[in-house]
UniProtKB/TrEMBL annotation:
SUPFAM superfamilies documented for this protein: ATPase domain of HSP90 chaperone/DNA topoisomerase II/histidine kinase (SSF55874), CBS-domain pair (SSF54631)
Leader sequence residues: none
Pfam families in the cross-refs: CBS (PF00571), HATPase_c (PF02518)
Record's protein name: CBS domain-containing protein
Record domain CBS: where: 21-77, 83-143
Keyword Cytoplasm: no
Gene3D superfamilies hit by this protein: CBS-domain, Histidine kinase-like ATPase, C-terminal domain
Classification via SMART domains: CBS, HATPase_c
Keywords for the protein's UniProt record, in alphabetical order: CBS domain, Repeat
PANTHER family with a match to the protein in the record: CBS DOMAIN-CONTAINING PROTEIN, CBS DOMAIN-CONTAINING PROTEIN CBSX2, CHLOROPLASTIC
Record bears the keyword Cell inner membrane: no
Annotated PROSITE patterns: CBS (PS51371)
Amino acid sequence: MAESITKVEELAYELRVSEVMTRDTKAISPQLPMRDVVELFRLERISGAPVVDGEQICGVVSMEDIIRCLLANDIDAPASKYMTPNPITVKLNDPVVEALKHFVTTSVGRLIVVDPQNHLQGIITKGDITRGYLRALQRQNEEEELRRYRARHLFEDIESDRTSLILRYNILAGDFRHGGAASSNIKRALLRLGATPQIARRVGIAVYEAEMNLVIHTTHGGIIRVEIEPHRMDIRVFDDGPGIEDVQKALTPGYSTATEQIRELGFGAGMGLTNIQRCVDEMTLESSPGNGTRLKMKINLDQDTMQEKKENLQNESAEDD
């Protein structure tokens, strides 16, 4: 059975970098003496700053770099000597989960945030993400209280031998600007239909990862088709792209065929299919070189309904105590 998805995990896919980042960033020049960098950090109470030469982002200086400088008794050296070059960047409109993937797979403490033209917009740290989560959770609290319906109520007023709702989305290859739009629309539709928050979280994450695979790895894009019935959801994603040479290897956490250009954009960490498996009850991946890829996912709605009912009873019991 698929794992439960927490509110915090859901927010990682829902929040954008621009919503949690620090915008008022103090940039320094490569020629600035480390003595002045130390003073800047002290006065501004910061622990890191991007190094910018004109409009070119060339590095980042952190407290660790300052410590190395002090230990070397090299306080008058330029920032370029101790900065970390080629810093990892994320885009303003990237979901926070892409920043988190960088934090998990690297040892960096901050990422540089840029606009579509790669101009400096700010920085994002784990602390920024935590504060962003807290603000978002406060906003969602009242909204979720109004959505405490059961998945079995989706089609309660409709009488037929078999009732289903079909949602269909065309995804374009390389369209990072709209990447994640389909998953957000599907999740919003489910909540409006009365689905439980847990169902919406699981579907939102699974579809997002599948959607980004279409954006990143296909030639022309593909189609996402979601069929919702009273007791289950079937999600199918298919494309006519290059296909997958080794399906079993593609299912290995961290394995990715993303190009260096895609990785520079902040995508292609190789966790997409792993995250999908966590969120769905059944997953089938069919692909071969030159024949495209077909991904089938199934979510049993009754299990989520029973789980939410159990959680509500536990909460009520705790309140009575």
